[in-house]
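Hey, can you fold this?
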Amino acid sequence: MKELIKDIKKKSPTIKFFKTYVFNKYVLTLTGFLVWMIFFDSTSFLVINELNGEITRYENQLNFYKTEYEKNDRFFRKLMNNKQEKEKYARENYFMKKPNEEIFILVVDSSKIAKK
């Protein structure tokens, strides 16, 4: 039986390959190092990938807020520089009125619209 195992070991090229290359101390050390750096280290590939995703989300949020700020700034400048715009905005949003003027607010029943 022992002789059969010895013959298999001698004749098998895969066992020789594993013995010489895969179980080499340098290959095992390098493999352990790579596994440690990819999965377990505090600056692992997975953590860095997650942080890059957060950075991308925050950059998208920043761009959104910048465009909203620019849009609101244009509206504010238009509102402050034009008297008719101020009056229109006040009438539409705060229901302000001129003397001797009446305002009618129409309320639509949303339940009747949904049924149709």
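Oh, and this one too while you're at it.
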Amino acid sequence: MEVGLIGLGRMGGNMARRLIKGGHRVIAYDPAPAAVKALAADGGGPAASLEELVRLLKPPRVAWVMVPAGPATETTIDWLGTHLSKGDIVIDGGNSYYKDSMRRAKQLAGKDIGYLDVGTSGGIWGLQNGYCLMVGGTDAAFEAARPLLEALAPAPDRGLIHAGPSGAGHFVKMVHNGIEYGLMQAYAEGYELMQAKREFQLDLAAISEAWRHGSVVRSWLLDLTADALKEDPTLEKTAAYVEDSGEGRWTVQESIELGVPLPAISLALQARFRSRQEEPFGARLLAAMRKQFGGHAVRSATK
């Protein structure tokens, strides 16, 4: 099957290569010519512009968008909506907000262009292991794109789900990432507690390796944790600064709208915010209040 892939970042490039290995023809465009050239060396068809990509694809076209969520995705899909034809399909494989996906699907449907929102999980390991794909959209669009989706999944019968109508794919991926936040925070807190118990001189890398086999907390995240601790047991090379992609925020916002309590995920998100602060004002105010009512000593700030 033929597909036009827009965006050859780390995940987009690996997805393109997995499709090529699966026997599919990939026409690729990226603003960085070097990325397009590298994929061409692996068998991809290069396009110097979006116009050329659309021109090179044979109708009915499938354009798979793998650009950063937000303005870049909005601009790209808007452009495709004015240059594709009836019967073509747009696939958004990025981390878009599900309500944006619902809106985009409706807009494209008015032009008889199909749309699939595909929540994609697998990270840098997807090329080797396959991707978990959570798909929203019509049955017709899903079936039309099924060969591509099955080639990207770990296996045709695993890691792929048509979750529901437009928006459902990105909604499920949003919740998936919220759960990921909570799992990562639980591991981080447990390991910090073990690291603080100095008298036992615990070997965290060895403990990770033991937990990977037979333990009820074993997981792929634990496998990756074990690898990280083998490489840098004290994590001295890693700053305690944790970004978020935005999906955790959307998950928490949705919980507020629906009145569904998500204490673990909400606190995990807040912990990421805290990790980015140096000498947070709130903590300094706590120290100041203790001094005011109890005369407790405070440490002087250093700059």
